[in-house]
Amino acid sequence: MKVFVLGGARSGKSAFALAQASSLPGRKAYIATAQAFDDEMKVRIERHRQERPDGWDTFEEPLDLPGLLLKIKDSHDVILIDCLTLWLSNLMLADRDIPAATESFISALTSVGGSVFAVSNEVGFGIVPENEMARKFRDLAGTLNQRVAAAADQVYLVAAGIPIKIKEVTDGPH
């Protein structure tokens, strides 16, 4: 089962994904994509660590998300990725080939036999960003989110802490 959870900043998307993933049996992996470039981000990362229940194996991978998924897919039954927009930011800052990375991620995601929960920000609801890099990020995030949503069995949009199911494939796994 592939579950994609979208929402705005502080919408409750990570907490929802973690609760859903925690309710499933089996060995669990939490993939964190954030990098602690400043003190504020260090605090955010630590808060997320403390919110995670016991029994989760944590992997920190800012760039090679597809490689890590392929590496752990057979040893873990439930995988939570938090979050794809931070991964995208990391790729942009590292001047990586975003379309190729997206393709690699979708391929790795669909190869996982267990449950995967992927969290991402929905950044397309706001105004058009003022600068070119922000517009590029918004556009790339929109494309990445569309690709992941197409590959997912379930898609949720979380607003104000309320999850709204916007897609469910009922004719078998994708």
Explain this structure.
With 174 residues, the protein is α/β, with parallel strands linked by helices. The chain has one domain: P-loop containing nucleotide triphosphate hydrolases (Rossmann fold), CATH 3.40.50. Helices cover 43% and strands 24% of the residues. The protein contains 6 helices and 7 strands, in the order βαβαβαβααβαββ. The protein has a 7-stranded mixed β-sheet with strand order 3-2-4-5-1-6-7, with helices on both faces.
Please supply descriptive tags for the structure shown above.
174 residues, globular, seven-stranded mixed β-sheet, Rossmann fold, 7 strands, alpha/beta
Short summary:
The protein has 174 residues and is of the alpha/beta class. The chain has helices at residues 13-22, 39-51, 65-72, 84-93, 98-111, 132-151; strands at residues 2-7, 28-32, 56-60, 78-82, 115-121, 154-159, 162-168. It has 6 helices and 7 strands, in the order βαβαβαβααβαββ.
Topology (elements, then pairings):
Elements lengths: L1 E6 L5 H10 L5 E5 L6 H13 L4 E5 L4 H8 L5 E5 L1 H10 L4 H14 L3 E7 L10 H20 L2 E6 L2 E7 L6
Parallel strand pairs: 1-5, 1-6, 2-3, 2-4, 4-5
Antiparallel strand pairs: 6-7
Helix pairs in contact: 3-5, 4-6, 5-6
